[in-house]
Amino acid sequence: MIKEEGPEQELEQEELYEHFRYVANEGQEPLRVDKFLMNFVENATRNKIQQAAKAGNVLVNDIAVKSNYKVKPKDVVRVVLAHPPHENLLVAEDIPIDILYEDDDVLVVNKQAGMVVHPGHGNYSGTLVNALIHHIENLPNNSNERPGLVHRIDKDTSGILVVAKTEFAMAHLSKQFFDRTTERLYYALVWGNLEQESGTIQGHVGRSLKNRLQMDVFPEGDFGKHAVTHFKVVERFSYVTLVECKLETGRTHQIRAHFKHIGHTLFNDERYGGDGILKGTTFTKYKQFVDNCFKVLPRQALHAKTLGFTHPTTGKFMQFNSEIPEDILQCLEKWRNYTVNQKV
Which of 35, 38, 252, 313 qualifies as a FRET site for 166, CA 20 to 30 Å off? Predict the structure, then answer.
């Protein structure tokens, strides 16, 4: 029981809906619960969190606390409200989607950059899931109550996703991802000139202890989950490098965190600091060139190019490829021309 922060009240759980739930890790230093939640909840303001706490909607270990409660290791922090989460109130929307393949069991989609995969805080409409439930009736829910989704890619990452249309397909495909028998190849443009032509990045990937909106790499210890990324160089542009990444595991932000960890942050990856000039000269002309590249490619340079999996019903291994999108191609062409001109 938590006593030191003043009067708390037990709430009637059956009248409230859980909107957020976070478990403080074992290395958590004492931190005010409002600041703790600020690190987790995107688009939330501290004032809104404090108002929620004042209303008794912030719980730690199932007891309402004030906003100055200090979160401790293994505390379970929850935000509960009187209405269901917006993402649970899914609305079908007639949004165009690029379908690469479809049968009675699966749907393979080429997601455009900028499209959120599933509804969440701040993004309750216009997502791929909203489009999917308009296209297909009675999609099966995954363990997180997200219809059809077996895996996901970030909002500003483009590329291939497979969607399950039946309960059997959901279970079969989910096991393939869990067993790491799928094939996933990504193309990424990263800052710097990699020393090796190919290599493997290993290190547990987990929520950053400093910035909860980022993932970090923990080479040793109990933090994060085992993660392995294999890579090989596709093309070099002196100050940036195009690499093909083969995922052995599929952790959140795995490629983005792994390449930052080895000193090669993804090009124009704002969240991980790749939207600044990390390699190159100090000339004004070069800075202008990089800025023009950022304008052509206003997102992290990451594309899920290839996806392979065993079909749930036929047992046949299927592989799908998507073209590198135009924004990445234009950026690569700019770097290609710049590199050639520098050598002249």
Answer: 252
